[in-house]
Records
---
Amino acid sequence: MKRFTLILQTMMKFSWMKSDDPRYSEEKQLLRQACFRSLIHHLEDHTRAVFEFATIWCDKHDTIDGIEQGFQDYLRSYAENAYANS
């Protein structure tokens, strides 16, 4: 967990992430970090989904309230779409 936090903090210091783009503001980066912390127990089985969902969540929300239910809904929707396309 400490290593993961260190990686995110290091990423936040990169100059390419310091722009006028609101997606890379310090607040949004801290929100993204909180998203990963909240969903860390899903990373082993759903790594890609966690990263994709965290991006979507941060674009639409300012807190992590309801993130677990949101992720479960995202997984369900993802599975239903994959089944429908097969």
---
Amino acid sequence: MKRLLTFLGAMFIMAGSTVWAQEVNSSATAYGSSSGEDGIGADGADWIPSISLDSRFSYDRIVSGDSAGFGGDGFWLSIDGKIGKHFSYSLSQRLDMAHGEDPSVFENTDWLNLTYEVGGFSFTAGKDVLMVGSFEYDAYDIDSYFDMNSMFYNSFACYQWGVKSMWTNPSETTSFAFQVTNSPFAFAPREENMYAYNLGWYGAWDSYESIWTFNMLEYAPGSFVKMLALGNMFYAGDFSLMVDYIMRGDKVKNMFDDITLNIMPSVNLGESVRLFAKFGWERMGAELSYDIWGEYLSVEDQIAANEENTAVLPAYIVPGEDYIFYGAGVEYFPLKENKSIRLHAAWTSNSYTKRHALNVGLTWKFDLVNAVRYITRKVN
């Protein structure tokens, strides 16, 4: 904890001293200027990082039970910036989780990476999101609704250390990426010598976006889960439709036995309101050699855990049974100039527990750099 507090303090001091230097330097661009040169170095790069504290608070209630109450859904430190013309960095650090027996601050790090870009190529090293072709999977936790997500999203160990290379065409409509990370099935990643190999295609046009990947995930030395994930997003005016399909298997012939399907339509009503709904279907085969949860319980133990479970989501998806989940919600952005504040209300249910959940809450993103700029300007 002391290391984390020291790190945060150093970042705030750096941000403040940088802004102070700009304000007292007569050649610095005034805050709020439209010239676009504030913080631009001699090499043309913007050296002032984007630093924000992002949080979400909500009221949860299981409609068919007595479970209800207020609480926090997450608290993150987010930092993004550039070092010179070709290097950029990104950090997302959770501030709402205990380390447990692991004293490393990296246990709560979602990602921490450095990227080198030249021409249409980029090379990234550090902790990152393991590439999976799904728009549900691609959404960050602060923008997701836990009870409305697939069990794959909620269970998969997506943040892994590794390296990635990417090429993007000149029109920026197509990118191909190859990534090697520690395996999400490894309990001791630096000791077990197991990896994930991920090949991805990203497409972006006016009416369609894609995230397609083929993944080889090592669940035992020399044994791999083969996964094909096809994420699709269609646009028509203010309407969008997400269609994700993921198939997995330890053998090619049983990849259709372990699947996740997501369909999510949404519509924007002006710039302030978004309505959305979601339908999903998951199924796990009975003859699989791996376990997404990494616990390898018997079917009897999984059934018993589901019977004892009092939450909206089941404890496990029992092999051979269909899991259907669905919900709907609304998001409201009260500020016209940005979307730093969001109000939401979401209802969810599923075919396993048949319980209904209601989540009403507030999300806000506090821009530390602009706050320091504003305070420094007032002081001067």
